[in-house]
Amino acid sequence: MIANYHTHTWRCKHAGGTERDYVEQALAAGLRILGFSDHTPYPFPNGYVSGFRMAPEQAEDYFATLADLKREYADRIEIHIGVEAEYYPAHFDALLRFLSDYPCEYLLLGQHFTDNETDGVYSGRATADETVLARYVDQVLAGLDTGKFTYVAHPDLPNWQGSRRVYERHMGRLCRKAAELGVPLELNFLGLQEGRCYPNRDFWRIAGEVGNAAILGCDAHRPEALNQPRTEAAALALAAECGVPVLETVPLANPF
After folding, report:
1. What's the CA dihedral at 146, 149, 152, 158 to 10 degrees?
2. Torsion sign, CA atoms 86, 47, 14, 16
3. Edge-to-edge order in the sheet of strand 246-247
4. Do the Cβ atoms of 67 and 37 come closer than 8 Å?
5. Which residues pair with 82 in a beta bridge?
6. Rounded to a whole number, what is the distance in angstroms from the first to the last CA of the chain?
7. Preceding peptide of 43 cis, ω within 30°
8. How do residues 113-122 score in pLDDT, each as one tens digit?
9. Cα 133 to Cα 117: distance, rounded to the nearest angstrom
10. Where are the beta strands (DSSP E) in 29-149?
11. Residue 188 has what DSSP assignment?
12. Looking at residues 208-221, what average pLDDT do you find?
């Protein structure tokens, strides 16, 4: 593994360590590329404050701190600055306008909620309701159609408890759209380490049949998460089992 594009910071309220700690750990792990992609600030109306992302007023410090590290470590590691964002149709254009004031290099599509967060459901909630799964996939497809996202983070986040036939029908739509657009899908290390419902073997079997490419993503919320060889080996074994090629690096899609 030479590149990780999925790295968080303390600003999201559920990660720890300094930005420099992450960079030093990445160097110790032999990474050549480190992308920071903390949970994006979203300019929600009506005073709503999200509990799992940085606040809009923290964006300036986020980008300035990482830009300084990017310059300082330029001869040792390639650092990129992005955000992990949901596609919220009511607020996405406002998000892009907000981010355009900063040196944001890429977006990861991590669809944690359906609809617009305040009126949707958590995508990882256990469900056998086909409308919830279909809505998740529809929204990911709409996000991909914008052309603004570099890859789909934890695409298999939904904790589906219903029929495999229904799961294959909807997740097949996601995989086919990603393959059509040439957008990689992330094999997520955090899910492996914590025994979450993802990575989902059924999902990756579909991806192998469709012909999707994967990218490894640490989803690092602690610096030490950037140096997990056993987790990497497990992710590579799953990809090999399902016939999914794993990319070493990905081109960054221009979010603007």
Report:
1. -50
2. positive
3. 3-4, 33-39, 78-85, 106-109, 151-152, 185-188, 214-217, 246-247
4. no
5. 37, 106
6. 28
7. no
8. 999 999 999 9
9. 15
10. 33-39, 78-85, 106-109
11. E
12. 98
Closest C-alpha among 117, 36, 32 to residue 77:
32
What is the percent of the chain where pLDDT is above 70?
100
The answer to whether 79 touches 55, Cβ cutoff 8 Å, is: no
Q: For residue 40, which phi and psi values (nearest 5 degrees)? A: -60, 145
Report DSSP state, residue 57.
G
Nearest-CA neighbor of 156 among 231, 214, 226, 74?
Answer: 214
pLDDT digits (tens, 9 = 90+) for 124-140: 999 999 999 999 999 99
| Mean pLDDT estimate for the chain | 97
- Reference 36, options 76, 77, 75, 96; nearest CA is 77
Contact between 244 and 214 (Cβ < 8 Å): yes
Half-sphere exposure of 245 (CA within 13 A, CB side): 12
In sequence order, what are the beta bridge partners of 187? 216
Provide the token pair at 20: 């420099």
Torsion sign, CA atoms 44, 49, 51, 55: positive
Tens of pLDDT, residue by residue over 48-107, are 999 999 999 999 999 999 999 999 999 999 999 999 999 999 999 999 999 999 999 999
Determine the average pLDDT of the residues in 162-177. 98
pTM over 0.90: yes
How far lies 124's CA from each of 139, 169, 180, 201, in Å? Answer: 14, 18, 25, 16
Amino acid at 35: G
Handedness of CA 39, 44, 46, 47 (dihedral sign): positive
Give pLDDT, residue 173. Answer: 98
Length of the chain counted residue by residue: 256
What number of other Cβ atoms are within 10 A of residue 22's Cβ?
27
